[in-house]
Amino acid sequence: MEQIERIRYYESLLNEATAALKQFETAFDAYAAVQDKIKELEKYFISDEWKTDFAASENNELPADLLCGVLSEDGIDHVLEDNTELYNRARQIKKEFRIK
User: Is the pLDDT confidence value at 100 over 70?
Assistant: First the structure.
């Protein structure tokens, strides 16, 4: 690889890495900011209140126009699983790249 070609190549690597890191930083900040809300959802999901609300939904006792995806049996569970999976992926990346 000649000098100009080499410099252009590594410049493109730098630009790609910079953009990816910026996107990751933004996404990671949003992920970190929502952790307390995920914990709150988990507490609700295992509570008697959720069971009561779920039963009311099943018995058509709630307003028809009420958004209640939170009462689906999979809704919160998927968020909790996805959160755990992302956490484990981050730990694996740290391990693989020996990041301190």
Answer: no
Cβ(31)–Cβ(86) under 8 Å?
yes
Report the b/e string of 7-20 with b at 16+ CB within 10 A: eeeeeeeeeeeeee
Residue with tokens 């890191």: 21
Cα separation, 36 vs 26, in Å, equals 18
pTM of the complete model: 0.76
Q: Are 69 and 75 in contact (CB under 8 A)?
A: yes
Please enumerate in sequence order all residues whose Cβ is within 8 A of that of 33, keeping only pairs 6 or more positions apart, or say none.
Answer: none
CA 73 to the chain's CA centroid = 19
